[in-house]
Amino acid sequence: MSDQMVMTIVRDAFYYVILVCGPLLLVSLVIGLVISIFQAATTISEQTLTFVPKLIAVFIVTVLLLPFMIGTLKTFTIEMFTMIAQMGPIEK
Description:
mainly alpha
C-alpha cells in the first residue's frame, strides 16, 4: 500500500464524514445561533432553552436525511471493499 493510496483513503473518509455529519452540525449551529440571539434580546438565560430545540431539530433532520446518510456510507464502504479486492492477496 503506497503513501498516495493511504492519503486517498483518508481524504475520502474525511469527505464522507463531512457529507454525513455536516447537515446535522449545520442545523444545530443555526438553531443555537437563533436561540442565542433570542436569549440576548430577551435576557433569558435558561440552559434548557438551547438544548431541547437543538435536540428536536437534529432528530428531525436525522430522520429526514437517514436514507441519504445510509446511501453515502454504503457508497464509501463499497469503494473500500473494491479497493481491497483490487489489491489482491498480501505477499509475505
